[in-house]
Structures are given as structure tokens and as C-alpha cells.
């Protein structure tokens, strides 16, 4: 933009330029800068040039009529369409990306603002509809989120995010059959969010609050034909109310007595609420039904991906061409892998059954909740849990094979392009934390395994080596390091690649360390 402004020539009368700027907002070499500042997205994407060109074409048709002293426009300017062009969809995508970044940082107000502005530019943008839905869902406004998820599911039935959001809310409103039709099963080990919803419903029941009801749109509340019947009912009630009124007049002296009685009874009401603690549910070992079958095969392990044509601008919506280097061929037998990371609810059953120590972060705000992945687990504790559940930790080769798509060579579980909505990453270490498992269905692998990229680092069975093909593992003070895969909520894009790995001592406890289990394939 600076090159254009340098090349622009100012006409001799400078006052005429300021006059044109005052009425039209362009001229004297300032039109491009003004349009760029008002319409260009806040993130530095490669769509700035096209947006500025469309804005310049659109500005003359929106500005007020010029004065009569102005000279007639040149033929090129007169050829512009008389009607304003619609808002570019890339503007909506940029605003939705800003809202997604704010949502990950739990800045729900700023996220809602950007998602709603994106829907003004493109009302059918799925990313903005579901993003606003989850923002309202997590900010305790489920009734508003319900209509967004229902709209998104009707418009995009193939969207896993819209389908799950609608199913979770239907389950919350007691529509179990409809929720099961969307999810396929109401197994809480398969859908841990359902355990969180039940926890909320139990808390409401303890406080004496009624169960939530399915919200109704305002336009559906207007009665048509039954209005006469509904109007008749209050009339009968109103006619019956004046009858006892004369009887109640002489009892005005006795009215204060029941008030004192109710005041005396008020302290006794909390008495039945004393037995608040409910007996813990029975311990139930996780079954193998919630696992995903992954067929064996051959793949290149440890491949590094580079973009030879990388430029300063980021093209998020275009095809990414990567160059794969390195790696070694590895053969993997068929196996099973947990669809989700092990949650707090599942690990709590293990703690109650085996008297194992509780994780150190269960009392922290960002790491509590039955639907969150358990964190602060050592490598030995992860192995102990998997053995108790009749499973085992996956090997590094199995984990990377599943993340790459069983030989498809994907850089990330969903493909080669970076997608902010597909993973939980880049959060503040002071105020962030992992998110509920199953919230990123678009980031699933080829076989449907979720959260392989981001959320929490996952322990695997192997010892850590500088390179997977090295013969000697690394150690620290005589202790062999163990391998972790997948990146976490606090890392950047560099850690989310399927081939990326790190290592740590097996007894390390960090709020970014979790795990999932594997099992041998049935014979």
C-alpha cells in the first residue's frame, strides 16, 4: 500500500483534495489506505489485496452524492455497478477466526462479538454458527445455544460439532431418544460430556430447582386458534377469586400470624437438605466397546514436513503443498485405541477401586470436571490405570500410525492444513487449561480417534530416544526418559504434528500430561 501512495500524484489545488476527502472519503492518494484500514481483517492473511480492491469498487456507490461543481467521473469509475457489492465471505471467515481465538482463551464476550459480526457478513457460515453456539454453551446460556445448534444441524447435517452440541442440549432437556438418535449411544464412557450434564442436573435437584425445559422460540409462543381457550381459563379463575375476598376481609387481624409462622418455619426448611452427599456410584471398569479398531499396515515413521513455497502470508483456506523428508518404514499390527483421552470421571473410578493417590490438580479450577482429561498423571500411574482397565499404553509407532491416518502420511490427524477449530492449543499457561474431550470432532483422525493433536500430551510405552531409530535411549540422573506425543493446550502448532515427540522422566507431574489406552485387536 505504501508503494501506491508514493506513486500517487497530488493535484495542484490542495484545498480541492481536502474538499473531496470531506465529501467522498477518497481521492488524493488516500482512498486505498482508508478502505484498507476499515475493511481488512485484523489477522494478517493473504486476502488483504482482494478485499481492498473490492472495497474501492464499493466505496463510490455508498458515499453521498457529490456536489455539482465536481467534474464528471472518468469512464472506468462510471462503469462501476450502481448497487453495493455484498460483504466478502473472507471478511466473515477472518472475524470467525478471531472469535475462535478469543473462545480458546475463554474471553467469551469478545468471542461472541466477533462471531455475531461474522454472521452479519455471512449468515450461513458454519464455523461462526457453531462457534457462537459453543461460546453460549460454555458461558451458561444453553437456551440460546440450542437454537444455533438446531439451525446448524438442519443446514449442515454432516457437521459433527453441530450434531454433538444439539445432542448434548437435548440430553440436558430430557429428550433422550432424540439425543441417542444423534449420538448413536448414550454411553458416558463414550460421550463424557453426558456425565458433566448429569452432574449439573443433580446439583439443580439438590438446590430445589426444576429440571430445564426445552426452550420455545418467541414466534411459536403466539397462539392462534387456542387463544380463546387460553383466555377463557383465566376468566374462570378471576371469577372464583372475588368470592373468597369478602371472607378474607374480616381475617385481616389473623393475617400477621401466618407470616410469623412462616418466618419460624423458614429456618427449619434446610433441615431436609442436610443429607446432601449422595452415595458414590458403583465402580465400573471401562469396557473395550468405546475403543476404535485400527487395521495394521506399513507407514513411514518420523517424517518431517516442510513447505518449500512458504511465504509471509498465510493461506488457510487453500491447498497446502508440503515436502516430506526423513522417516523410516515401520510395520504395525492391528490394534485398538481409545476414542478419547482418559477423563477425570474414569480415573476417579480407578482411584476409588485401587486406593491410588488423587492427581494433584483435581482441586484447581481449570482441571476439574468429569468431562475434562485427567492431568498430572505419571507414566507409571498411566500404565497402572490401563492394566486395571484390561488395556495397555500404546506404543509410539501405534500412536503415530493412528495419527497419520494409517499410512496416509498426514501431517495432522485431520490433514495437512492448520485449522484452529480442530485442536486445543496455544492457551495461556496461567489462565488456560484443557477442554472437554470430544469438543473437536472436525479434528478426528481417519478412523475417528479425537484429540490426538492438542489438549494434553499423551504418555506412550516407549523409552525416549533423540531419534526413534537410535539404539540408546536418553536418561536423566540415571532414569530413562519416556515418550509423550500430540502436544497440549499450552503449546503452539509446532507440537501438534503427528511425528512430533518429546520426553520426560516417568515420575513427572505436569498439568499438560495425560494419556489414553490401547489394546490388542481381537483374534
Could you explain the architecture of this structure?
With 523 residues, the protein is an alpha+beta fold. 37% of the residues lie in helices and 9% in strands. Among the domains are: 2-78, no CATH class; 155-219, no CATH class; 289-308 and 319-520, paralog of FGE (formylglycine-generating enzyme). The chain has helices spanning 2-7, 14-24, 31-39, 48-62, 75-78, 89-104, 108-121, 126-138, 142-155, 160-172, 176-183, 193-206, 227-240, 244-248, 256-265, 344-354, 379-388, 396-403, and strands spanning 291-294, 297-301, 304-306, 323-325, 328-332, 335-338, 457-463, 475-476, 479-480, 482-485, 501-504, 513-514, 518-520. The strands form five sheets. The protein has a four-stranded mixed beta sheet. A three-stranded antiparallel beta sheet has the order 1-6-13, with helices on one face. The longest helix has 16 residues, at 89-104. Residues 1-69, 76-80, 220-266 and 311-320 have low confidence and may be disordered.
From the structure above, extract its key features.
18 helices, disordered N terminus, alpha+beta, paralog of FGE (formylglycine-generating enzyme), three-stranded antiparallel β-sheet, 13 strands, 523 residues
Amino acid at each position: 500500500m505504501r508503494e501506491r501512495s508514493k506513486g500517487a500524484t497530488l493535484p495542484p489545488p490542495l484545498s480541492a483534495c481536502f474538499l473531496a476527502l470531506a465529501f467522498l472519503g477518497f481521492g488524493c492518494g488516500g482512498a486505498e489506505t482508508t478502505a484498507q484500514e476499515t475493511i481488512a481483517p485484523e489477522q494478517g492473511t493473504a486476502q488483504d489485496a482482494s478485499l481492498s480492491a473490492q472495497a474501492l469498487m464499493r466505496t463510490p456507490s455508498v458515499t453521498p452524492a457529490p456536489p455539482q461543481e465536481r467534474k464528471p467521473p472518468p469512464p472506468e469509475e462510471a462503469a462501476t455497478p450502481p448497487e453495493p457489492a455484498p460483504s466478502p465471505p473472507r471478511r466473515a471467515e477472518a472475524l470467525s477466526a478471531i472469535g475462535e481465538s478469543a473462545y480458546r482463551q475463554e474471553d467469551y464476550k469478545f468471542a461472541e462479538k466477533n462471531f455475531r459480526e461474522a454472521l452479519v457478513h455471512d449468515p450461513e457460515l458454519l464455523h461462526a454458527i457453531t462457534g457462537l453456539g459453543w461460546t453460549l454453551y460454555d458461558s451458561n446460556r444453553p437456551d440460546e445455544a440450542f437454537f444455533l445448534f438446531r439451525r446448524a444441524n438442519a443446514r449442515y447435517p454432516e457437521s459433527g460439532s453441530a450434531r454433538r452440541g444439539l445432542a448434548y442440549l437435548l440430553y440436558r432437556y430430557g429428550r433422550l431418544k432424540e439425543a441417542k438418535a444423534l449420538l448413536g449411544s448414550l454411553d458416558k464412557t463414550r460421550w463424557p460430556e453426558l456425565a458433566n450434564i448429569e452432574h449439573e442436573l443433580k446439583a439443580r435437584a439438590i438446590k430445589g430447582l426444576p429440571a430445564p425445559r426445552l426452550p420455545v422460540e418467541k414466534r411459536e409462543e403466539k397462539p392462534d386458534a387456542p387463544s380463546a381457550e387460553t383466555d377463557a381459563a383465566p376468566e374462570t379463575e378471576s371469577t372464583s377469586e372475588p368470592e373468597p375476598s369478602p371472607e378474607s376481609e374480616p381475617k385481616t387481624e389473623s393475617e400477621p400470624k401466618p407470616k410469623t409462622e412462616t418466618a419460624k418455619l423458614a429456618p427449619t426448611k434446610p433441615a431436609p437438605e442436610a443429607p446432601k452427599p449422595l452415595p458414590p456410584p458403583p465402580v465400573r471398569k471401562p469396557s473395550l466397546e468405546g475403543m476404535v479398531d485400527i487395521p495394521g499396515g506399513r507407514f513411514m515413521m518420523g517424517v518431517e514436513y516442510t513447505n518449500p513455497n512458504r511465504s509471509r502470508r498465510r493461506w488457510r483456506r487453500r491447498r497446502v503443498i508440503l515436502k516430506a523428508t526423513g522417516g523410516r518404514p515401520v510395520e504395525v499390527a492391528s490394534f485398538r485405541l481409545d476414542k478419547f483421552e482418559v477423563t477425570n470421571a474414569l480415573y476417579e473410578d480407578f482411584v476409588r477401586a485401587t486406593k491410588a493417590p488423587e492427581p494433584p490438580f483435581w482441586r484447581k479450577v481449570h482441571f476439574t470436571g468429569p468431562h475434562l482429561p485427567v492431568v498430572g498423571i505419571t507414566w507409571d500411574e498411566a500404565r497402572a490405570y490401563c492394566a486395571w482397565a484390561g488395556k495397555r499404553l500404546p506404543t509410539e509407532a501405534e500412536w503415530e500410525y493412528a495419527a497419520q491416518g494409517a499410512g496416509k502420511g498426514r501431517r495432522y490427524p485431520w490433514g495437512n492444513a492448520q485449522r484452529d477449530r480442530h485442536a486445543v492449543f496455544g492457551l495461556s499457561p496461567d489462565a488456560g487449561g484443557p477442554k472437554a474431550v470430544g469438543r473437536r470432532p472436525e479434528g478426528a483422525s481417519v478412523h475417528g480417534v479425537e484429540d490426538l493433536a492438542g489438549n494434553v500430551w499423551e504418555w506412550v510405552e516407549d523409552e525416549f530416544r533423540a531419534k526413534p531409530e537410535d539404539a540408546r535411549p536418553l536418561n536423566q540422573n540415571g532414569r530413562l526418559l519416556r515418550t509423550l506425543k500430540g502436544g497440549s493446550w499450552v503449546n503452539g502448532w509446532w507440537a501438534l504434528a503427528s511425528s512430533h515427540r518429546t520426553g520426560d522422566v516417568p515420575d513427572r507431574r505436569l498439568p499438560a500430561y495425560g494419556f489414553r489406552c490401547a489394546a490388542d485387536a481381537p483374534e
